[in-house]
Structure formats: C-alpha cells, structure tokens
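Chain X:
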Amino acid sequence: MELRTLRYFVAVAEELHFGRAAARLHMSQPPLSRAIRRLESDLGAALFERSSAGVVLTPAGAVLLDEARGLLDQVERAHVRVAVAAGVAVLTVGLLGDSTDSRVARLADAYRLRRPGVEVRIRETDLTDPTCGLHAGAVDVALTRGPFDGTGLVVRELRADPVGALLRDDDPLAGRGSLKRADLVDRRWFRFPEGTDSLWQGFWSGGEVREGPVVRAVEECRQAVLWNGTVGMTLVGHPPGAGLTVVPLLDMPPSRVVVAWHAGDANPLVQSFVRIATAVLGD
C-alpha cells in the first residue's frame, strides 16, 4: 500500500466525487479510478459505493479513511521533525490582511500544537495581491480569498462566506433587508488599482467596470464609503465599523476562503500547513 495511493484514496473520500478528486490531485480521472480499483482489489474490500450522483464510503472505506489520515499525518510529522532537527523548518505564509481574524488565531494555535519547532514567518499583503506573494515567489503558501489567476498554483477551497453592500448608515438603501447589484448600478464604487488581478477586481466590483476612489486595504474601503458615500462589497459576517452597515447582496456568489500553494511543491511543511488549515478553517 503506497503513500501515493493513500493520498488518492483520501482525496476521493473527502470529495466524494472522482472528477473533483482528480482535479484536486491535478491528474486525469481514469488513472485515479484505476488506482482506487487496485487498492480495493489489494484489500479485498469495496471502499466506495458508486452511482451516477457520485460515491459514498462503505463501512470499510470509512475505516480506511480514518487510518489513512493518521498514517499520512505521521509521515508529515516525521518529515517536519527531520526538518526541525536539520534547522531548516521555516515556512513563510501569506495572509490577505486577515491576520487579526479570530479564525486565523485558531489556526495559529492548532499549528503550534501539532508542529512545534517550525518557524512560521507571516507576510501580510493588501487587497491588490490576492495571491499574497505566491506568484512573486515571496511565500510558500497563502491563506487568502478567491478568485484570482491560479496559473501554476494549487487552490483548495476551505469555506464560502456571503457578501453584501457596504453603505453608510444614513444611505437610502441602508435600511433594506437585502439588495441586488441592479440597486447599485448608478452608484460610485471603491475599486482596486489598475493592474490588480482581473478576476479579483471583477468579483469585488460586482462584475462591472466601476468608477470611484481607488483603495488598497480593508480600512481604506471603509473610509472611502464613510467619507464619500460610495459603495462597495464586503463580507456580511465582518463588523463594518462605526457609521457603516452591510446589506446582503442576493445575486452575488460568496467569497471563497482558500489555501493556495505552488503546483508540484512537495515541501512537507507546506503540505502539513494545508492539512491543518483544511481541518481548522474548513466548513
């Protein structure tokens, strides 16, 4: 039973879909299916019940998932301990202006507990670089939000947060229970500088080209609304600040929290961080 095969199995078991698992593993579906079939043959047990809707774990599959996660965690821990002993256990993590978020604090606690001895260096970026320095080679892994150009990267979604319109308290629309983008069509929006990732810019501009003040940081977004009466988008669950309110936008997709790293990077510190972040921050 090879570690690679166990990683394949865990991906299918977590996604409960061969296509999504193959995409997550950056491989085509046929070899993944063959590998799982061989694993089932070697073990003499069916691990999944297959149907047109996807797959579900059998009782044997549930047992193997628990064991496989433990084995892979032990392997990662061994790699990390060797790196610590060799004095090379340094991981640079990019954060998108959210290092004060309580959930990031929980992740820091969990990582310190499970990977003592690893030196974590944090690089916090503003809203103009959603990859937090990944494309520039400045970080090993990023905890950020999509969408953005993922060329050369592996991007794993952790959860999805609803978004809303950020307005002044005295804005005529502030008392509404919900809004749609059409309600804001004639308004000035805060926007990111030219050259910002187009997918990222397009999402936070509601899919339109907007006119309005240029911002680079979360607090600049709030101040642009407070001082100018402009509008923009923010997370429904984040406190907007004094004098501001957030009204849910019904026709906007959620903002997706993701962890991203360089494709092909087998650094055990990166893989360990991804697994812990998925466990702590996932839905």
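Chain Y:
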Amino acid sequence: MPDLSYGTLVASVGIAAVYYFFARRRFDFLTVSLIGAAFYFSPLLLRTVEVTLVTDPTIPAPVNWIAAGYLLALVAAGLIAAGLPAPQRSKLLLPSAAAPCLALAVVGLIGAIATTRGAIVNADKIVVLKQVGYSYVLFEIAASLACIASVVERRWTILAGACAMLAIDLLLGFRNYAVLTAISTAFVLLASQPAMRLIVKGPTFGIACVLLVAAMLALHTARFAIFDAIAVERNAPRVTRAAEMRGDTLQFMRAASMAGTPTSAASAAEAPTSLPRWFLVPLQLFEHSEPFTIQATLVETVHRAYSCSPGNILKSLTLIPGAGHLLPSYPMTFYDEFQPALFPTVDYGLGGNIWAEMLCRFGYAGVVAFGLAMLICLVGMQRLFLAAPPTLSAPIAFSGVIIAFYIYRNDLHYTLVMIRQTLGVFAIALVIAWLHTIWQSKPILATRNPE
C-alpha cells in the first residue's frame, strides 16, 4: 500500500520548489524559510533519522504531514504576500553602525579570552561550549552584524575584518553564526533587487554556497592541525588525533568506516554497497548531519506520544525587561524537558525542534497555530525590512533569518533569546555610532595666537 503522507510530502516539496524558484517574485524571508525547510526536512525524504539516537528510525506519517502542510502553507503565504502593496522606505537618517559592530566584536573576543584565561581556545568543542559567556556571545553577534552592515554600506575593509572575526569563530569550533551571516548577507543582496526568477541566480549563488560550505568544512577540519601546533593554555596537552576534536573530521572518518554498511531502512533497501565509495562517504556523512539529529526529536515525540507542560511556554515572557520580577519562575525550556525524557543516555546537546515543541505542548492544533503565526511574522519582517532605513537592515535581516531558517533546530525560547541578543548588541553599536557622530560634529574652537 503506498504511503499517502510520503507522497504528499514529495509533491509539496515539488510544488514549493517550482513556485519559489521559477515564479517571478521578490526574494523574501518566505524563500529563506523554504530553504530552511528543505534542509531540515531532508531526512524525511530519505525516510530515516539519526539511527544512533532512536530505536525506530522510520518516519511516522504525522511527521510527513507536518512538513507537507507547512510547505504548502509557504506557497499560500507567498501568493498572498505577492499581492500586498510594497511599503515605502523610511527617510530617517541613522549613522553607520558597521565600524562600531566590528569594534564590539574585537572587544568581545578579547573579553572572552581574558575572562576564561584562554580556556575558550581549546581543540575540544565540548570543552569550549562550557566557556561560552556574555563576552563570546557579544563577539559572535557583533561580528555577524558588522559583516552584514558592511555589505549594505559597501565598506569592504570592515567586511574583511568581520570575516576574519567569523573565521576565528570557526576555528574555535562554531559555525552557526557564520552560516546565519552568509544567509543574511545573501538575503540583503537579493531582497533589494526587483522581482525575478530565483532559478536565474542559481549558478552564481549556488556556486558561492558550495564554496562557502567547502571552505567552512576545510577550516573546521583543519582545527586539529592548528591546535596540534599551538597550545594556548599553559601545560595543555597537544591534540594529535582528529578523533579528539569531536568535529567534522571525526564525522568524516566515521562515515568512511561505515561506507557500504546499511545504517537505515532506506539505505538497506537501496543496497548501498553497489554504489561507488566516493558517493557513499558523503551520503553517510550527510545521514549523520544536523537535520537527522534534529528530526529524531520530532520522530521520537510522535512515536512515544510525548507531551510536556504547556505552561512552560510562558518562560519566554521573562525575556521582556522587568517581566522576570512579575512572573512566576519557569525553570524548564523545551530542551530541558525533552532530552532527559526522550534521550536520557545522550550526554551532549541535541539542539531543539520547534515543531516537536509545539506538538508536545499543544498537540496538532498548536502546530497549525504556530505555523500560521510564523508565516505572518515572516511576512511582517519582510515588510519591516523594506520600510526601515538602510542602517537597520543588518539586525532585521539577521533576526529574520533566525526565524526563517534557524528556528527549525531550536525551541521558541532560545530563538527569542538570540533575537533579543541581536537587537541589544546592535542598539549598543548604534549608540556608539550616534555618540561618534555628535563628537565629530562639535565645532572646533579656534585658539588665538598671542602676539
């Protein structure tokens, strides 16, 4: 008997791809959300999730229906948004914030190294994660905003400095901000153009995407050689094996060792041993990548009929300044709830899954309500981006990409935390830029030469 849910998912992917890539329309956050959905829902097309996390890696029908429903809703939202009148760009003049953002990134990096006494520079990412504090968050967000703002303002020297900051972030073991920055930069370049068929931009931006991914993987993997030669902490042991990095090199080695060995129902059915090794290694690497881990949470939530407290969603209200003193304590985020219940033996973070959170808190009605709210938010963010002064393009683009792309692998609370941090860092940069403008506009008092 054919699987109706899987067939609907495949059809919805095709419909959404045809509409967003071949229809003549402006690039927007809905398009970014489609790209995010295609990436994070990709395990559903292969009919498996991370096999080391679950006892049954097969995809239940409700998971396919959730993905298919959101993809079709994306098409409907795109059709509605295309018919809305274009907002007028604000004529408000604001000072440039690219340089202050870069300065804050440098301050944040120095602060992170100083406050951790160099422990933030470590080959083991698990160790580095324990050292991340306010200074390092300032460094990452400010570097991302500096990169986006410098592209908007065409300040290439600042762009080079911001890219260097993000390269340091990659060397330290983090790539989420580099990815979000790259997507945000592509967004500000494409969203400013008139209506077009996105497929036309495929060769240029597609090649750029492939090169970026290759460079990130190469730089991330090269960490072991760099840390083998440089020990930042006093008496720190040198890393001589890539396996000690717990990064991409380990994943690649694992994929190479398993190439030709079926790791899922789908791969077993397709007899992967008949495929060439050059194809099997990337396939195995992909099957152990982030989307397969993220969707394992949704699959287990459905398989186990897992439910969690609806009231803990109110924890996000404590992010409002001053609200923490007025509201009761909500100690649990979705991550704190699901990982001990669904994956008690896993000793590392698995990220979140926004659809799993809404399903476990509010059921399928909550999933539908959140999907509609997310689409309305993305349309509103797009109109805000088009109407805001150019100086505000960076924080709006970055926050919009967090909602459109990164929310698939987070819970609601952490998503809102990232947005609040982004707006807070940019507000500081804007105040610095404003003070600098006032300082430059002060009249220079002429001094008399006594004679």
